[in-house]
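Re: the multi-chain job from yesterday

Posting the exact lines I submitted so nobody has to dig through the queue logs.
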Amino acid sequence: MDAIRVENITRAFGKGQAPAVDGVSFTVGEGELFGLIGPDGAGKTTLFRILITLLLPDAGHASVGGHDVVRDYQKIRSTVGYMPGKFSLYTDLTVEENLHFFASVFNTKVSDHYALIRDLYEQIKPFKDRRAGKLSGGMKQKLALCCALIHRPTALFLDEPTTGVDPVSRKEFWDMLGRLRAEGITILVSTPYMDEAARCDRIALIQQGRILSVDTPAGLRAGYPHPLYAVGGAPMPALLQQLAHHPQAVSSYAFGEWAHAAFTADPGAAALQGYLRDAGLAAASVQPTDATIEDCFMDLMKRN
Amino acid sequence: MLYFLLQKEFRQIFRNRTILAVVLVMPLIQLIVLPLAADYEVKNINLCIVDNDRSPEAQRLTQQLTASGYFRLTGYTASYPEALALLEADRADVVLTLPQDFERGLMRDGGQTLSLAVNAINGVKAGLGAAYITTILQTYNNAVRVQWVQPDRFPATPVLKVAPVYWYNPFLNYRVFMVPGVLAVLVTMIGGFLSALNIVQEKEVGTIEQINVSPVRKHYFILGKLLPFWVLGNVVFTLGLLVARVVYGIVPMGSMPLLYGFVTLYLLAILGLGLLISTYCETQQQAMLITFFFMMVFILLGGLFTPLDSMPAWARAVAYCSPVTHLIAVMRMIILKGSTLHDVLPAAGIVAAMALVLNTWAIVHYRKTS
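And the result, structure tokens for all chains:
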């Protein structure tokens, strides 16, 4: 049985507006770590709110753990954990009080499922008497995850959990998700960061309310249709300009120090180097490269 | 479940210094300061006398006016334009003009005409000032008659003497009248403001969604919100009663259970209003402004400062739709007059109906939006 099943879900805000989520379908298997990747405003949060029964869809069906999000919303509410993108715990209660409160709200006790959150909670335990509002960003994130896990949900919904979190905390956070997945908890996570997508079992790329592709990260990268070269060693603006003027150019984007250039047919590394040298960029170095998820996303976005 | 919600709510309330201050200090300050300041008896009316006569009789009248304690002689001139200038400069509220042959006319012709000019920018001050002067002039007039008219001649006009007795407030002490009213307003503010703001705060922070995705039932959540403020309302009311007793010596004449019973019923209505406002607002600022609007109307039309009977019919109709009006009336009835259940039953019925309508509306609308 699929842990999460989404079929043709559509939701618009206000008449005449383009739908925020437009005919989205995908399934998430039990115990899967599923990533919803897309830029801000792609409809990720709307989709989350429909799945955790805070919002009704205009059309389509969705179920979580076999329960329909409209009909059986009460059953879903006691079995899922939700962590919104914005910190939403009681800032005037202490760390410990928040945890106990959310445990009691779900008719359970902190001690019942403590094993699940031990690793995470041990890190914030020294601050258990501090008010939640006075915690640092990373600490808040950990506390929020603890509160979302305290009733041992079968499915966990994390809406942009790492936005605004430092790289070290982000890595720790994803390590933690890996451990939760090993515990058999289904996780649906959204993020605007492409580098995090590689850590998911499968990812769905979403743009303007539509799903562009659902695949494993490796499958997605393998499916990249164009020959791709990483070009560096020359000033980026000039490099991008010259690459865009190449007769077989599909696209060229800057990735840090390197420009990724895609072509309709393989021009060959030496020929490309020659093309750039003729254009006055003799220092440029060219090497073939594998597509990253970001390349795939850019490509899919362009085609749709 | 409800226990945990209440525990959380009270924890938050006791951590919030502002709320504590509002609940504990506001009733004390307002009850001690407001009734003392809100006095209907106008004193310190600035009086200017234009004395064109400069006779002993004119002196005697001036003395009698200033000795009354209501007037402050801010001008004593010989020309009317000069007095008008004072009036314009707002240094005189009332200008009394004594004609040139004031004493002579009084003695010889047995009558005299005085002119009185009143600055009516402050209507209450003007009306009362003129009334005070008229009364003092009448007393003076009687004294003059006794002095100048021969004793064997009886007054030509029959004098009707009225001796008023003020029931329930024998000395016509305004504080006795104001304190129950101010107390009613206090209970309203605590119940209405705090409950509306509290729920909207959860919306603003996003915690309400965390509760919404949990198995907590809506009615538990609402009860968890209403009960603490219902308790707070009663605490404020009790504090207020204590202040009234200690500071003003006002001891409720009627039964305490009846008083608390009515306040409980009333709090249900006003908490319902707060809840209703919170379901329509997304931010605390919106809730604050809307609550403030209602409070202004309620307080100004509630019969606290102006009697309901002096309002036009439409205003009275609006006033009857406000729960505050009924609370103020019932508080005065029970505290000052010792009214019984039978007397307050109509008001209780209206407030109960309001509580039912407001709460039902709020719950229906709350369900619909989520």
